[in-house]
Design a protein that fits this description.
mainly alpha
Length: 97
């Protein structure tokens, strides 16, 4: 893995937060834009706690599944969203919903 600068890490964290927010709101247009610009639907270990500042430490995929945003769920999976991974605090995978 390449070494990232502090600025790159901050941008990745902010983009991850934004993706989580937009997936939670059902904003498919912004989710498509973020994913198309390289924002990954899963957090790396180094930014997991900041990336999942959302309720219950849920990922974008958790939010989309829970809220019934089927098109967003499909997009997140197509862009590499992990279905079986349980989050550090919730202990629920996306399939539990």
């Amino acid at each position: 893995m390449a070494v990232r600068s502090r600025e790159q890490l901050q941008k990745e964290i902010e983009n991850g937060r934004l993706l989580t927010e937009k997936a939670s709101e059902g904003d498919i247009r912004d989710v498509k834009v973020l994913l198309s610009n390289g924002v990954h639907p899963n957090a790396d270990a180094y930014n997991r706690t900041l990336y999942y500042k959302s309720k219950n430490y849920w990922s974008p995929l958790h939010h989309a599944v829970r809220n019934g945003y089927h098109e967003i769920v499909q997009l997140l999976i197509e862009f590499g969203g992990t279905l079986l991974q349980c989050e550090c605090c919730s202990r629920y995978s996306r399939l539990h919903f």
